[in-house]
């Protein structure tokens, strides 16, 4: 029983699904408050935690907590495109954009499948981390707004069980694509490259 928890990503997958459910419930319960900063911060923080747990599940047996934190940061920072598109930090402007901001379009993120498929370790790990952060964010948003797939359009909002299942499938797919044996070396290589660049 203990090996199931230590060898397979069951624990982070459960935390991922619970985080999605609690975050969505909190947004639902505070909907009467209307657009406000606490709701926006809650939503963005939930996206960050979802991305962190997604990366943790992808690399479970050899997780680098630095890379997990980076994935969480990337998953949260995607929401900054609301402010860039609105040209303001006014909460009313942020939530009443005429269209979805550019980082919320799923199609361009799928280009990261190319380095994931044919790149070396550093490229594969970087692409997988960005896909974990970006697509986990998009899937969670899809429960309320659907997936934005330019130039094809948008899907209708996804039912909660569907989007939660897709979150788990994303983790397992990226885990398979990376191959659990290559992640530790790839994680160290990314960190070593970052250290070299900062010198």
From TrEMBL:
<dbReference type="GO" id="GO:0016020">
    <property type="term" value="C:membrane"/>
</dbReference>
<keyword id="KW-1133">Transmembrane helix</keyword>
<keyword id="KW-0812">Transmembrane</keyword>
<protein>
    <recommendedName>
        <fullName>Transmembrane protein 267</fullName>
    </recommendedName>
</protein>
<keyword id="KW-0472">Membrane</keyword>
<dbReference type="InterPro" id="IPR026572">
    <property type="entry name" value="TMEM267"/>
</dbReference>
């Amino acid at each position: 029983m203990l090996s199931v928890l230590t060898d397979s990503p069951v624990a982070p997958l459960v935390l991922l699904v619970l985080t999605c459910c609690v975050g969505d419930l909190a947004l639902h319960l505070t909907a009467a408050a209307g657009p406000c900063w606490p709701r926006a911060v809650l939503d963005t923080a939930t996206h960050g935690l979802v991305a962190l747990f997604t990366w943790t599940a992808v690399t479970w047996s050899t997780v680098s907590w630095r890379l997990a934190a980076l994935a969480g940061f990337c998953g949260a920072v995607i929401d900054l495109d609301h402010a860039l598109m609105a040209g303001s930090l006014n909460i009313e402007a942020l939530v009443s954009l005429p269209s979805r901001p550019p980082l919320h379009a799923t199609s361009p993120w799928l280009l990261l499948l190319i380095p994931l498929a044919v790149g070396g370790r550093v490229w594969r790990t970087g692409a997988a981390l960005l896909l974990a952060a970006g697509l986990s964010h998009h899937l969670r948003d899809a429960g309320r707004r659907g997936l934005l797939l330019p130039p094809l359009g948008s899907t209708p909002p996804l039912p909660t069980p569907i989007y939660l299942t897709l979150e788990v499938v994303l983790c397992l797919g990226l885990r398979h694509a990376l191959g659990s044996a290559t992640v530790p070396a790839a994680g160290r290589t990314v960190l070593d490259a970052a250290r070299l660049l900062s010198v």
